[in-house]
Specification:
Layout lengths: L2 H20 L1 H9 L7 H29 L2 H20 L8 H16 L2 H13 L4 H30 L1 H23 L27 H35 L2 H11 L2 H16 L1 H22 L3 H15 L2 H12 L5 H28 L4 H15 L16
């Protein structure tokens, strides 16, 4: 395979694995609550922990990766940590007395492992495909992330129904070790210094992003705030929708079926939104995805009364909500010079998307002590609605970006 195809295939394998594993703990929540003596509130703090670690570390990972130019090795390390997290998440089912300790250890490893892929994967694609064309390929790449989110929950529930949840998690561990080997071999060719896109692509462009002193920080601040507020809501839904659905239908299999089908929608949606980002710019697609996700969650939460309407409305919500990789990273590639790409990616994804999600989870856990999941979702939905007001501050893509 040529270098471009290698970069797409093996970053896609990484994205499939990392995003699939991100739904691991939300599914495990429905199993952990069956262990006598464990607190739902304390278990709910684990996603806060791994999201905070992932968000804070991603900024440093991006800065470190910019300096050392060893992206294949860093991605491989991240996949191994994801596998180790799954291993430690299996131990509470065996040693109940030390359940919290092993959950914490697994959350720390998951947080570090999850901090790595998105800023680095986006950088590899933006270097190999160029700042304009990369958004479309990020859409293809992102579809594999969505495929991972679609595949992991039903796969884990299915395996657990035959061999138990502990052995089911060990299958996940083995998978990650194998995936790490393939990714390292497939991406070891990549060095940023070999690509002309390492230099600023729009350094002389008088645009909303580069040309007015201080404009770049303001643009990034507005985008980060928007993503932060939206992620407070979306990360909460990602984490607790499995528990919500399990409670509605009293069936882990129906819960896994809904998740498996719903997360197939972004498999198609991410390439579409990646193309739209390349064609019309990131401001357009950030707006469409933000408004669509809020609208369909309203339908899901307040108007869906049976299995079919729940499935359809949540599928449309997923179609719009889980498009962040090609939309946000493609937008950054259009508006930020190449030499700052990974740090900008890490700021938007790590601080905005991931730390925002952690704060949302922390607020949700506190609110849920006093209210139902239904009312807690309603409160967090307000933050997503507020985030829509920041759309007006986002700049359009500068003209003349090379493909």
């Amino acid at each position: 395979m040529n270098d471009k195809l290698n970069s797409l295939v093996f970053t896609s394998l990484s994205h499939f694995s990392v995003d699939g594993n991100f739904l691991l703990f939300p599914v495990l929540l429905t199993y952990y609550t069956g262990i006598r003596g464990l607190s739902f509130f304390v278990i709910g703090l684990m996603p806060v922990l791994y999201n905070l670690i992932s968000g804070f570390l991603s900024v440093y990972v991006g800065s470190y990766a910019d300096r050392v130019d060893r992206d294949a090795s860093i991605l491989t390390f991240g996949l191994i940590l994801n596998g180790l997290a799954a291993f430690f998440f299996s131990i509470p089912f065996v040693f109940h007395g030390a359940a919290y300790e092993f959950m914490i250890l697994g959350s720390v490893l998951l947080g570090v492992g999850q901090s790595i892929y998105h800023p680095i994967g986006a950088t590899i694609l933006s270097h190999t495909f160029g700042p304009k064309g990369s958004a479309s390929y990020m859409g293809i790449n992102g579809s594999f992330g969505s495929l991972g989110r679609s595949a992991f929950p039903p796969m884990l529930v299915f395996i657990a129904s035959f061999v138990g949840i502990v052995l089911g998690l060990e299958v996940i561990v083995i998978y990650f070790l194998v995936a790490a080997i393939f990714v390292f071999i497939g991406l070891k060719f990549f060095r940023r210094k070999n690509y002309e896109y390492s230099i600023p692509a729009i350094s002389k462009e008088k645009s909303a992003v580069k040309g007015k002193e201080g404009a770049l920080p303001v643009f990034l601040l507005m985008l980060v705030v928007l993503v932060f507020l939206r992620s407070m809501f979306i990360t909460v839904t990602t984490t607790y929708i499995p528990t919500y659905l399990d409670g509605i239908f009293n069936s882990k299999h129906l819960m896994a079926l809904i998740l498996g089908i719903a997360f197939l929608a972004p498999v198609l949606g991410q390439p579409l939104f990646g193309y739209l980002t390349s064609r019309f710019g990131g401001r357009f697609t950030v707006s469409i995805s933000s408004i669509g996700s809020v609208a369909f969650f309203v339908v899901f939460l307040y108007l869906s009364k049976d299995f079919l309407t729940v499935l359809v409305s949540y599928t449309f919500f997923a179609f719009f909500a889980y498009t962040g990789f090609p939309v946000l990273m493609g937008y950054v590639s259009q508006t930020v010079p190449r030499e700052h790409s990974t740090r900008a990616n890490a700021l938007v994804w790590g601080v905005g998307n991931t730390i925002g999600g952690s704060i949302g989870l922390l607020l949700f856990d506190g609110v849920h002590i006093f209210t139902s999941l239904y009312l807690s979702f309603t409160i967090l939905l307000v933050f997503a609605v507020v985030s829509l007001g920041f759309l007006v501050y986002l700049p359009r893509r500068p003209k003349g970006i090379p493909s």
